[in-house]
Each structure stands twice: as structure tokens, then as C-alpha cells.
Amino acid sequence: MIELLPLINMMILLVTALLIVFIPIKRFGVIKIIGSLAFSLVLIFSVVTLLHVQANGAISYIFGGYERFIGVELYIDVFASLFTFFIGLLGLLTFIYSIGYVHKEVEKTQYSRYYVLIFILFFAAYGIIYTNDLFNTYVFMEILSLTACGIVSIKRKRKNYMASFRYLILNEIGSLSFLFGTALLYMITGYTNITLVNDALQDVWHLYPVNIVVASGFMIVGVGIKAAIFPFHVWLPDAHSSAPIPSHAILSAVVLKLNLIVLVKVLYNVFGANVMTSLNIPLFTGVIAGTGMIMGSVFAIAQHDIKRILAYSSVAQVGYIVLGISLMTHLGQAASYFHVFSHGMMKSALFFSAGCIIYVSGVRDVRKYNGMFKLMPLPVITFSLAALGMIGIPLTSGFLSKYYLGMAALDANQGIFVLVIIISSILNAIYYLPIVIRSFLQEPSSELNEISDSSIPYTMMIPVSIFAILILVLGIYPGILTDIIDGAIMSVVGGWQ
Amino acid sequence: MSALFDNIINHINQIGACALIVIGLYIVVMHTNMIKRIIGINIFGTGVFYFFVSIGYVRGGQIPIVNGDESGVMINPLPSVLILTGIVVVVSITVYAMSLVIKIYEGYGTMDQAEITRMKSGENND
Amino acid sequence: MNDIIVKTVARIIVPFIQMYGIFVILNGHISPGGGFAGGALIGVSLILYTLVFGVGAAEKKFSHRLGDLSESGGILIYLLIGSVGIVSGGYFLTNLEAGFLKGETGALLSGGMIPLLMVAIGIKVTSTIITLFHAMIEEDPS
User: Fold this and answer.
1) Residues C50, C46: Cα–Cα separation, whole Å
2) Spatial distance between the Cα atoms of A329 and A480, rounded to a whole number of angstroms
3) Which residue of B has its CA nearest to C32?
């Protein structure tokens, strides 16, 4: 029975998306109840699966009961159940936040379509994490990018359409490159199942080095376009800054991380660490990650719109995660998984607080954020806490993730990356600290005097507070997460001899 | 010299698919008209699908339909079935991109992406 | 279009296209084709009807509400057929062990649950193609 829980998770999300179509448009309350129920059930089942897999080992579920090389397989180990718990938590809190916010950004006739898109997005998210088949990953990645474009263009403004078009074309090139890499691997191994490809590659990789390098190049570039790694990030600022605020959180905290999870699966599960290091591929991903960490922050310094600042900051944070992955050591992987969690919490807290501020006052330009603390204390406190976490002040989870990354870089004898992390933290401080200082210390401008934070609905304040509390908890006592992450690394096949 | 020609003729499918991929990528990168970029994505996708399907070919094989007598080697049907799903995905993306282009044309009045960027850069600076 | 030749020929041909589409769907397990190709054919027949007779007449034949319902209904039927395997103790989408009829090789009623899945996919693809076409040619109501 426990083995059916991952499948039941995916079916709950898909069936909820289909049932929302049948509900007439006027009854928004029904959508709220069904959606919250679905996300809560999925979160509970994810936690149960995580505890079961930690105790009993991985679950392998093949559709139709066929053999591995014919059927589609879902492989659920500690890595998969840990990240589905993370995505489930983000989904529930984002859904609660969006109930309060959606009437400002989306028209009334589009509510049901917006929520159908969100549920199908999470269905594709769970599919990517669970699946063990390369072509299945391609299909779910396409569903993810289509629904993400959908929730960007749900607002009927012309710049949303333009941003969504650019997002769509670039992501499509990325997915097709990934498919080309899969075709090259299918040519030399004859399988698309990830474990079978890994077994076959360990035997034959020295016979086809050119093929494997080309295949890994196409796959890394394809996933890199979709995850906004530095030179391929050009779609990100327009798409993220014109999206509605609840979908901005989903785009930045869920969609980018899922494509990085695909990168981890490809580099470790399909190719294996020893094949990668023999072909010198971590060098390239390390250089790209280091450049991204610095250039993302440099671009963010020049922006004035709060949403564009946060979008460019995502580019830098993705660089951190790719750096941890490309070090190819145990500590590097642990650091980048911890940073996935902490960045998800911090970025969501930043977006939701900025959303509360924009909801009440409509101000998006950071040069006008003088004295916001006196007008609405609670969103500004959570924003400042998350911003301090991004810079890396101790007692927050951001400091711990940078510390782990630095330790991992020293352990892998690549000390230059410690210097890059420090420079990037200084650059982060250059654009986050002025916002914090300006909102605490200066006097508010005269046209904002009559607003207060009592008009923010409680459905928006609860997720913000939960994220802020989690940032502090993870910063002070990270042991609850790092133990599970240690178990998750052990279970990723392909390298620790 | 004849070994090179033999190699080319034996792998003509893969060479043709790679040519389509390069043509499609060139169109997406170098042209600024939005409809042409959508056509470029289609050509790129067709090239990748053609590459995938041509892996399944077995020289001297029979059609993979069981008709009573199953002697001889059959062509691998698995890539064709996978690509059927891929074609449906590319079709839906093409339709979605074209609907977006219709709305963009109503909003901006032009279909040239360089011109729209020039118009938008005036709109974003505040 | 107001041309009498076009209208008469379209009125004669549309049932034959639909018959061909249904034939391709039902023979999905014996010959190439299946749900996607057959569904696209039936969808194209309704697009031809819309092009010749106008959007209003086509709306009476296949309304928006029917399109939404049949899109969701197609996937729900697929999930239900897959769940028969779970209920009878096996995996999702189990074919013969879940009790579907096997039949002889090459006959029409054979292959277990594959013809049923093809019908579900055919319904879904039909309504998808018609909805996509309507989304592109209609004036925006809101």
C-alpha cells in the first residue's frame, strides 16, 4: 500500500486539475477548498513516503508490471522523496498565498484556468522527480515549461505576452537539445531507462568518448537554458518580473530547481561521477557557475524595480547550486542540496513580502521604499530577514549554505571558488542592504501616509511568517535537514568508490 | 576516398538530421521575425525527431507487425512510438506560440522582435 | 464561404473523413496509427466544417462546454482504465493480468485494454484540436 503513495500523489494533482474545469466560474470558494485539500494530502503523503523510504530502502514501481527495459519506471529513493516534500511544502504555502492575492492580478473569468495550470505544473514537477526514464523526463519537462509560460501570460498585458513568447522559444530549444542528447545515448546503449543506461555506460564509455562528450554537452546546455545558468539566462528578467506575484514565487522557487534536479540526475545517475571526471566536464560547469555567481549580482545592482532585482538575484543563486554540483564530492552535493532548500525559503519569503508591500501600496520602485517600516512593520521585517539571509549574515540558513559551499570547495582543492563566493556575497550586500536600510531609517514620503498593514489578508501573512520562521530555524539548527540530506546523497548512484 | 563515401552513404540519415538541426538553429538565432522563429523551432524539432527515428532502422529488417509468421529480424518500433508523443508536444507548442504572436501583434503593431525590444526599453526605464 | 460547390462537397465529405478517423482509432492495436492520428483526423473534419459554414454553425455542432468536458473526460477515462490494474492487485496500467480479454492475434477485439485507451486518447485529441483552432480564430471576448 505504501508503494502506491507516489502514484496516488501524482493522480491527486492531475484529477484536481481536471475537476476544476467542471466547476462553474462563480464559485471560487469550492476551488479554494479542493485545492487546499489536495495540496495538504499530497504533503502528508510525501512525508509518509520520506519516512518509509528512509527506513526501508528505495521503491521501484514499473507501470504494467513489465521488465525494466520496456516499461516506464518510477524510482523513489531518499533523494526523490526529500525533494517532493520540499515541492509539496512550497506548493501548499504558495496556494494559500495566492488565494488572497489572485483577485488583484488575474481577471475573474481566468481564475479556474490559472489554477488548472498550477495543478498541472505541480503534477509535472512530481513526475520529473519520480521518473527513472530519460524520455519520460523530456515529456514532463515540456509540460512544465508550457504551464510555466501559461502562468506568465495569464495577465492580459502586452509585455507579458512578449516575455512569455521569449520564454517559450528559448525553453523549447533547451528541451529539444535534451532530447538530442537522449538520442545519442540511446544510440550507444540501446536503453532509455536511467539505471540501465548507467550500467551500460560503465562498460563502454572508453569506446565512445566523443559520443558521450557531445551527448553530455547537449544535455547540460539544454538544462542550462531552462534553469537560467549564466550565459543562457536572457529570458529570465522579463518573464519573472512581469508575472503575477504568486506565480513569480512558483517560477523562481520550483521551476528553476526542478531543472537543476534534472541536471543532478543526468550528471550523477546517467553518466556517473567517474565518467564525468575522466572526460573533464566538471571544469566547464565550474567555470560557468563561477561566472554566473558574479555576473548575476552585477546585473542586479543596476536595476530599480524590485521584481527585476529579485529575478537577477535568482541567476546568481542558481550559480551557487551548480557550483556545488560540479565539485563532484560528497560535501559539494550536500552543500548544494542545502542551498536548494534555503534558497527556496528565502526567495519565497522575499517575493511574498514584496507582494504584500505591492498589494497595499502599489510601489515597485525601490528608490521610493523610504520608511516602509513605519507603515507596515511585518512584511518589512520578513523581507529584511530574508535579505540578510541572502547576503549571508550568521544565524540564518543562507550563511550556513555559503559556509558549506566554501568548505566543499576547499575540500576539493579548488580554493578559487571561496574567493568567488566572498566576492558574490559582497555584491549581494551592495544591492540588498540599501533597500533594508532605506525602509527602516528614513521618513516615508507624503503620499504613502494613509496606508497600513491591517488591510493585508491573513492568508497572505501566514505563509510569509512560516517561511521567515523556517529560515531562522534552519540557520540555528540545521541538523534536522543535513541528516536527511546525507541519506539522500548516499542513494544517488554513480560514484562514491 | 571510397571509404569516406561509404561512410556518408551508410549514415545519410544522421547527416540529414544534423543538417536540419543546424538550419533550424540558424533560423531561430539570426532572424528577428517571430513567425520565422516559430518555423525555425519546428525545423529544429523535425531534425531531432528524424535523428531519433533513424536509430531504429535495421538493414534487411521487416515491418514490425505480427501477421502470423514471425521469422526474421524486425525493425525496432520503439523510437517511432516515442516520437509520436514528441510530435504532439511540438504541435501544441507551435499553436500556443502562434496565439501569443496574434496577441503581441494586436498589442505592439509589429512582428519584429528587435523593434519591440527598442519599444520596450523605452517603456521599462522609469 | 458562400460558394455552392464548396458547401455541397464539404457536406458530402465530412462524414467520410470522420469514418476514416474512427477506423484508424479502432485499429490502433493492429496497424500503425492509434489515438493521436485518428483523433487528429476527426478534429480536422470539424475544422473543415467550421471553415466552410462559419463559426456560428460549428458552435452548434461542438460547443465550448462540450470541448472542455471531453478534454477532461478523456484523461479521466484513461486514469480509470489504469486504476483497474491497481484495484485487481497489480500495477498501474496492467493489461492481461487485470482481467482484460485477450482475443486472437490480428482480430479487432483483442489486445486487452489497448483499444479502450485508444478511444479515450482519440476523444481527447479531437477536442484538443478543435479547441486550439477556435482559440486562434475567435475574437477575444473578455
Assistant:
1) 6
2) 21
3) B65
The question of ipTM being above 0.90 is answered as yes
Question: Which of A60, A53, A97 is CA-nearest to residue A78?
Answer: A53
CB-based contact (8 Å) between B53 and chain A?
no
Sequence ranges of the domains in chain C: 4-137
- Predicted confidence (pLDDT) per residue in A145-171, tens digit: 999 999 998 888 888 899 999 999 999
For residue A181, the SS3 value is: helix
Residue B39's domain comprises 2-125
Q: Please tell me the distance from the alpha carbon of residue A2 to that of residue A381, in angstroms, as a whole number.
A: 42
Give the count of domains, chain B. 1
- Name the residue among A218, A144, A239 with its Cα closest to residue B44: A218
Q: Hey, of B39, B104, B115, which one would you mutate to test binding to chain A, going by the most A CBs within 10 A of its CB?
A: B104
In this complex, the residue of B52, B93, B120 whose CB is nearest that of residue A172 is B93
Cell readout for A131 is: 521518473
Q: Quick check: A63 and C72 CB within 8 A?
A: no
Residues of B in contact with A142 (CB under 8 A): 89, 93
Q: Enumerate the domain spans of chain A.
A: 280-497
Q: From the CA of B55, how many Å to the nearest CA of chain A?
A: 6
CATH code at B108? 1.10.287.3510
Question: pTM for this structure?
Answer: 0.93
pLDDT of residue A495: 42
A to B CB pairs, distance under 8 Å: 76
Q: CB atoms < 10 A from the CB of A460, how many?
A: 22
Average pLDDT score over residue span A310-338:
88
Q: Which residues pair with B33 in a beta bridge?
A: B112
Quickly tell me which residue has 473569468 as its cell. Answer: A109
Residues 6 or more apart from A130 whose CB is under 8 A from it? A6, A10, A74, A75, A76, A80, A84
- Count of residues for chain B? 126
Chains with 3 or more CB pairs under 8 A to chain C: A, B
For residues C90 and A60, what is the distance between their CA atoms, to the nearest angstrom?
Answer: 14
Q: How many whole angstroms separate alpha carbon A292 and alpha carbon A319?
A: 5
